[in-house]
Design brief:
Layout: E1 3-6, E2 9-12, E3 17-23, E4 32-38, E5 45-50, E6 56-58, E7 66-71, E8 76-81, E9 90-97, E10 108-111, E11 115-120
Length: about 120
């Protein structure tokens, strides 16, 4: 499975961006799909996940601001990011796998190349 992210860019604080991740194979629908991010000098952290049934989980830092969703017909998972803050600036990665713990990075099998999000104050 290959994953391709789109939608990164620059925005002012309080603005919105929508990231999308398209999988190369329809079997992606069996996987948990997650978004991770990595800011300069920091460890990569889990942002949100959606499982095959559509159940979602979020990092506390983005709850109420970010929404993850998936479109099976388009083999796509999206991350709607609202009320962005400068601390949301990072490279965002899409990942697919079967994690026992949703934000355990090592549990994900497939990764996209990342897309950069920059939020200015």
């Amino acid at each position: 499975v290959q994953l391709m992210e789109r939608g990164g860019g620059s925005v002012q604080a309080g603005g919105s961006l929508r990231l999308s991740c398209t999988a190369s194979r329809t079997t992606y629908s069996n996987y948990y799909m997650a978004w991770f991010r990595q800011a300069p000098g920091k460890k990569r952290e889990g942002v949100a996940v959606i499982d095959s049934d559509g159940t979602t989980s979020y990092a506390d830092s983005v709850k109420g601001r970010f929404t993850i969703s998936r479109d099976r017909a388009k083999n796509t998972v999206s991350l709607q990011m609202n009320n962005l803050k400068p601390e949301d600036s990072a490279v965002y990665y899409c990942a697919a796998g079967y994690p026992p713990v949703w934000n355990r990075e090592s549990s994900y099998i497939y990764w996209g190349q990342g897309t950069r999000v920059t939020v200015s104050s």
